[in-house]
């Protein structure tokens, strides 16, 4: 289910700089690092599909290892495009609590996926 939501999300969504998602790394020319710079092109090339599957597997594994509260907030906000106000209304948690959970989720993903990123 998570893999399908992630795939659907990136099919629909326009590319956004990682800086919008609190990633501070920039390319040498000063341009923000884009998701499309990391993921293989959306072609039907078997090698690209294998690489993409490997990346999604690692993302799914990282999400599975993440504490449930952080994972839920991250998925709702990033993949289901829910605002923090919407999530707050549904869960009864404060917006600042949700922001904190997402921050910790991002830090967890950065640490967990760093080796994969360096290999690419």
From TrEMBL:
<protein>
    <recommendedName>
        <fullName>RNA polymerase sigma factor 70 region 4 type 2 domain-containing protein</fullName>
    </recommendedName>
</protein>
<dbReference type="Pfam" id="PF08281">
    <property type="entry name" value="Sigma70_r4_2"/>
</dbReference>
<dbReference type="InterPro" id="IPR014284">
    <property type="entry name" value="RNA_pol_sigma-70_dom"/>
</dbReference>
<dbReference type="GO" id="GO:0016987">
    <property type="term" value="F:sigma factor activity"/>
</dbReference>
<dbReference type="InterPro" id="IPR013249">
    <property type="entry name" value="RNA_pol_sigma70_r4_t2"/>
</dbReference>
<dbReference type="GO" id="GO:0003677">
    <property type="term" value="F:DNA binding"/>
</dbReference>
<dbReference type="InterPro" id="IPR013324">
    <property type="entry name" value="RNA_pol_sigma_r3/r4-like"/>
</dbReference>
<feature type="domain" description="RNA polymerase sigma factor 70 region 4 type 2">
    <location>
        <begin position="57"/>
        <end position="97"/>
    </location>
</feature>
<dbReference type="GO" id="GO:0006352">
    <property type="term" value="P:DNA-templated transcription initiation"/>
</dbReference>
<dbReference type="InterPro" id="IPR036388">
    <property type="entry name" value="WH-like_DNA-bd_sf"/>
</dbReference>
